[in-house]
Amino acid sequence: MNVSRVKSILATAGLAALGAVAIATFINTKTVVKAQAPNPVGAWFGIARPCPTDPTTDSPDHAAFCQTICGTCPGIPGALPPEVPMMPTLLGDGTVVADDAGEIGRYHTTAHGKWQTNTDSSVLQLAGKQRFEATFFWLQSFAPTSDPGSLGDVIGKLGGTCCFGGGARPRFVTFFDPTDPDRMQGFIQPYLFPFVDPKTGLVLVNPPTNAYNGNHIPLSSVDPLVTLPPCTPANGCLGTYHFVIRRIKPQ
Fold this sequence. Notes:
Blueprint: H1 3-35, E1 42-51, H2 60-70, E2 84-90, E3 95-100, H3 102-105, E4 111-117, E5 130-141, H4 151-157, E6 164-176, E7 183-193, E8 240-247
Antiparallel strand pairs: 1-2, 1-8, 2-3, 3-4, 4-5, 5-6, 6-7, 7-8
C-alpha cells in the first residue's frame, strides 16, 4: 500500500478518535449541569418580625401563617424586637452560619449550626414546598442594663459585671419552592440559655470527673445543645418570628 495512503488513513482515524472524546466530554458536562436541581444552598437576606402579626403593618397571609405555626404565639412579653434583619447561609455540607442586626445593639457572635430536610407529617408542611429546618447557636453578651425584667437587669441586681452571659439557640424553619428558588418564607424561635454565673463570669458546669461529661460541659438545666422543647416562655423560648428571605446572587 502506498505510504502516503497509510499516513492519511492513520491521521483520519486519529482525528475521529479525538472528535469522539470531545463529543463525549461535552455530553457528560451538559448532563452534569442539567442534573443540578434548585436547592436552598446559598446566602440569604431577609427581615423577621414577631408573631402574632401587627395588622397595621403586615398582611393577612402572614397573620394566617403565624396562626398555623403557633396559634396565639406565646412568648416572653417585650423580649422580641419589632424586627430583626438577618443573613443566614446554608452550606452544601449541611452546616449553617447566620448573622443578624441584633449583633449591633447587644453584641453576640455569628451563629453556627446544622440544617436538614424534614418531611415528617407530624410537623407543619406546606403544599408544593420542601421543609428545611436548622438550629444554630451563638454566644451572647448580657451586660448589666436597667431594662426591667431583662437578663441584663437581673445580672446587674446580682452585682454581675461580666458581659458574657451565655448564648441563644434558635429553631429556624424555611419552606422552599423549587419553582420560585430565590425566595423562602419561614419562622424562627430563639431560646435563651443563660449558662454563665453572673457573679463570676464562668460557665455553670457539671462537677469535675474523669469522664467527658465533667466540668467542661454546662449543667443539663442550662445546656444549649439539648433537644429544643416546644416554644413556650417556661421553656426559655422568647417567642416566634415569621420571615421572608431572598437569595443573595452574583451581579
